[in-house]
Design goal:
Blueprint: H1 2-15, H2 22-42, H3 50-62, H4 65-74, E1 83-88, H5 96-102, E2 106-112, H6 115-127, E3 133-137, E4 147-153, H7 158-164, E5 169-179, H8 184-188, E6 194-202, E7 211-218
Parallel strand pairs: 1-2, 1-4, 2-3, 4-5
Antiparallel strand pairs: 5-7, 6-7
Helix pairs in contact: 1-3, 2-5, 2-6
Length: 220
């Protein structure tokens, strides 16, 4: 089964033009293994089937990596200069762990209010030797930045997400919200201090479902 899952991951990464090396594929497969093992005890995700984990979690998260990389490149950082990202409501590390593996120049801090989920993410960072990954047990409202990127995946309404993480985002930072279908209702009720500047459609390899990224920035 794991050989079939690995080849599905490799095909998906190729479809997304991610250019992942063998070591990165190895790390993502090891993460899937850890997620399955810990899920039995800690209930990190409602998805139990390894095949579903691959499509609904891993590939779903990977589909957002090209957009993240593009934004990181646009920041024009010098070689060795780190980019700070806060992933809110990370749960079992999706997409935070995937972003950390695929974007080694980004320091990904994953915050969750559930202690066992934050502990799992710390364990993942150690086990998979990801120095740019950190699990934080806290409420996002308590965190101070500045973070260049504040992301979430199916976490909360846009107004709650942006309000709760306002103190954490850098003045020139952006919010990166992964959603299912385009959330017109949520966008309509945002205040004047938040601007939606792009909604990007995503195609997830092997998954026939609507996905998008809502890009937002703080105003004022």
């Amino acid at each position: 089964m794991s050989a079939a899952l690995r080849s599905q991951l490799e095909r998906g990464a190729q479809q997304l033009n991610l250019g992942l090396g063998v070591a990165q594929i190895d790390t993502l497969m090891a993460f899937l293994d850890l997620l399955q093992k810990w899920n039995k005890v800690y209930n990190l995700t409602a998805v139990r089937d390894p095949q579903e984990m691959m499509t609904h979690h891993l590939l779903d998260s990977l589909a957002a990596v090209p957009a993240l990389r593009r934004h990181v490149a646009s920041l024009g950082r010098q070689p060795g200069e780190r980019v700070a990202q806060l992933d809110v409501g990370s749960g079992g590390g999706l997409p935070g762990v995937v972003f950390a593996v695929c974007c080694p120049e980004v320091d990904v801090h994953c915050v969750d209010t559930v202690a066992k989920k934050a502990a799992f993410l710390q364990q993942v960072a150690v086990s998979l030797k990801l120095p740019n990954l950190k699990g934080i047990h806290a409420r996002v409202e308590s965190l101070k930045g500045p973070y260049d990127i504040v992301s979430c995946r199916a976490f909360a309404s846009l107004i709650d997400f942006t309000t709760w993480s306002r103190a954490a985002i850098a003045p020139q930072g952006i919010w990166f919200a992964m959603k299912g279908k385009k959330p017109d209702d949520e966008m309509a009720v945002l205040g004047a201090d938040v601007q939606v500047f792009h909604v990007e459609h995503l195609e997830v390899p092997g998954l026939d479902a609507e996905r998008c990224i809502v890009w937002l920035r703080p105003i004022g």
